Amino acid sequence: MLSEELVMEALKEIYDPELNYNIVDLGLVYDVEVKDGNVHITFTLTFPGCPIAPMLIEQIQENVRLLPGVKDVDVELTFDPPWSPEMMNEEARADLGLD
Question: Are 52 and 17 in contact (CB under 8 A)?
Fold first, then answer.
């Protein structure tokens, strides 16, 4: 059954090419909503001018659409609140020398 947890697992397959960590562990995914097969994902970037934004949006849509039961995927890019390294999980912060 399609769930927010299943969507988050699919999003863990998408990596930031510069930091080599997935977008979930980096804290870039702010919210996932699932309703009647429609998925709304709110995410951010490490900085507003990040050139990989279109690539990440495309990968998010592609990965989530592969999940059974998905009818539509809406991806919302936001900078509110702005991303900061504190949003990363502990393992990612430690590996990148931020702890």
Answer: yes
Pull the structure tokens for residue 29: 């995914």
Q: Which residues pair with 21 in a beta bridge?
A: 16
77 has which bridge partners? 43
| Number of CB atoms found within 10 A of residue 49's CB | 6
**pTM (2 d.p.):** 0.93
Q: What structural domains and CATH numbers belong to the chain?
A: 4-93 (3.30.300.130)
Which residue spans within 5-96 are E strands per DSSP?
Answer: 15-16, 21-22, 29-35, 38-43, 72-77
| Sheet strands side by side (includes 38-43) | 29-35, 38-43, 72-77
pLDDT digits (tens, 9 = 90+) for 37-83: 999 999 999 999 889 999 999 999 999 999 999 999 999 999 999 99
For residue 68, the surrounding DSSP H or E stretch is: none
